[in-house]
Write a structure and sequence with these properties.
heterodimer; A: 175 residues; alpha+beta; BirA Bifunctional Protein, domain 2; seven-stranded mixed beta sheet; 29% strand; globular; B: 127 residues; mainly beta; OB fold (Dihydrolipoamide Acetyltransferase, E2P); 2 domains; four-stranded antiparallel beta sheet; 12 strands; 11% helix; elongated
Chain lengths: 175, 127
């Protein structure tokens, strides 16, 4: 999978759509060290400073019906990788929020843009891996793997594991 | 009308005048005459370039999937550009943004925010 890495982006989702519009290449990954306008579902702001893992994946053509099921399974896939990495159970607030010790540590989303017969879907994944500090208003509801487990995650290796699972999973799903 | 035009390091003296032959534009020492006949040609070409009637047809935007109208971003009679977000449909947790397939005017919005829609239900009519 092609990984396009950026130091700072407003939003990996927006960048992914921009890139897909120019050159639609499924499985292209857009990775940012930090996002200044990271978004969650319904466009809510997602705190995404350096230390976390923020990326989006341009999805292959997939019908809206299948995409819906795929979105619902995406959080399980990410939770599985986190569990294998840290050995702690991840709670999924179905279908798209990931919790550890009662605090949000990540989330997934899928955005689909439909323009007549053209359709581009992008999956966005955000994991608070090594985020060291949260603003006061988020402190009680959000946390990171580092804060909760004192384990520092190798973001790059972690990303590769997620991508490998992701691709296997999506291929199975598409066939 | 006379004026001097600077483009980068080059300077051009431009003189525009109306003569019997048509409009004469003199750039430095070169003359360009836009004859009346040519004007006619331009006119006929522009007529030819007017889009065919078919492209003004109304277009119904249908729901690609059952779900809930999460947000409507346009109003009736609003001009929209191709690719502009018209509305979003939330199906489970997938956000489906429905974009305008072409330039046009929103003639009718047939759904409300929060409304549940069926697949292929008419959402918006673009004229």
């Amino acid at each position: 999978m092609k990984i396009l890495e950026f130091d700072t982006l407003e939003s990996t989702q927006e960048k992914a759509f921009e890139i897909a519009k120019e050159n639609f290449e499924p499985f292209t990954v857009i990775l940012a060290k930090k996002q200044t306008k990271g978004i969650g579902r319904k466009g809510d702001f997602w705190f995404s400073p350096e230390g976390g893992l923020w990326f989006s994946i341009i999805l292959p053509k997939i019908s809206p019906e299948k995409l819906e099921i795929f979105t619902n399974l995406l959080s399980f896939l990410v939770a599985k990788v986190i569990f294998e990495e840290i050995g702690e159970k991840i709670f999924i607030k179905f279908p798209n929020d990931l919790y550890l010790n009662g605090k949000k540590i990540g989330g997934v989303m899928v955005q689909n843009k439909i323009c007549g017969k053209n359709q581009v879907a992008v999956a966005g994944i955000g994991i608070n891996t090594n985020v060291k500090k949260f603003p006061e208003e988020l402190k009680n509801i959000a946390s990171s793997i580092l804060i909760e487990t004192q384990k520092e995650i190798d973001n790059r290796k972690f990303l590769e594991r997620v991508l490998s699972e992701f691709k296997n999973f999506l291929n199975l799903f598409l066939n | 009308m006379e004026f001097e035009l600077e483009l980068g390091k080059e300077k051009f003296k431009v003189k525009i005048s109306k003569t019997e032959e048509g409009v004469k534009i003199k750039v430095n020492e070169k003359e360009f005459i836009f004859e009346k006949e040519k004007e006619k040609e331009t006119l006929s070409l522009s007529q030819f370039l007017i889009p065919k009637k078919e492209s003004f047809k109304k277009e119904k935007i249908l729901a690609p999937i059952p779900g809930e109208v999460a947000e409507i971003f346009v109003k009736e009679e609003e001009k929209v550009k191709k690719g502009q977000v018209l509305l979003t449909i939330l199906a489970m947790k997938t956000e489906n943004e429905i974009l305008a397939p072409r330039d046009g005017i929103v003639e009718k919005i047939l759904v409300k925010k929060g409304e549940k829609v069926q697949k292929d239900q008419e959402l918006i009519i673009i004229k």
